[in-house]
Write the structure tokens for this entry.
Amino acid sequence: MKRILIITLTGLLIVGCHSKKETSNEDIFYVQTQKIKRKDLKNEIIIAATLKAMDEAVIYPRTNGKLIKNLVREGDRIKKDEPVALIKKDEVGVV
């Protein structure tokens, strides 16, 4: 009797372990692979911006007159008391 019980349990165990699992199309998926290539990485950021000087000065003439010539351009460095333009003074009564 014991022998029949052991044979039956062993048979059930074998059948349970060998059950076939049906695969469907949902279980299969394809993967695309590529070969590894060595490349240099760029670490840069592109930003649109406006640059302004930390210090700037607005220049006014000490006298009235007509501008004859600019001696410096915008952005040029100048020293204290350095002339930046030539001005022809207005004469009294002349239009």
